[in-house]
Design brief:
The chain is an alpha+beta fold. It is built from two helices and six strands. The termini are far apart. It binds zinc ion (ZN).
């Protein structure tokens, strides 16, 4: 499961941002997961619990937002949203596909507790 490494990297990044911007405890982390990223959201959630345990992120909520995948066929330039495991152009059945959206996992938002409260 490479989700463990990904989640570890996410928390390191968030912690670095938190320190740079001198933010308080993090309330919620929102992550965008591309449909073509190969990342399994369920694994991500499970790994998050394991990675966050015993750290300042133990109480931090993790929110995942799926980003639709989009691929382009190099043979006919058709752009389409590929189905889960069918990596084939629906127009010409071509298999030379380039992912053009939804292939990354990115940190979208970090919410911290309001210091006034
Ligand atoms: Zn095609």
């Amino acid at each position: 499961m490479h989700e463990m490494g990904l989640m570890d990297a996410v928390l390191r990044t968030v912690e670095r941002i938190r320190q740079e911007q001198q933010l308080g405890p993090v309330r919620k982390i929102t992550i965008e997961v591309g449909e073509l990223s190969g990342v399994v959201p369920r694994f991500l959630e499970e790994c998050y619990e394991a990675v966050a345990a015993g750290t300042p992120f133990e109480e931090t909520e993790l929110a995942l937002e799926m980003v639709p995948g989009l691929a382009r066929c190099e043979d006919c330039c058709n752009e389409f949203r590929p189905a889960a495991d069918v990596l084939r152009c629906p127009a010409c059945s071509g298999e030379k596909l380039t992912p053009i959206a939804g292939k990354d996992m990115t940190i979208k938002e970090i919410e911290v507790y309001d210091p006034e409260n």
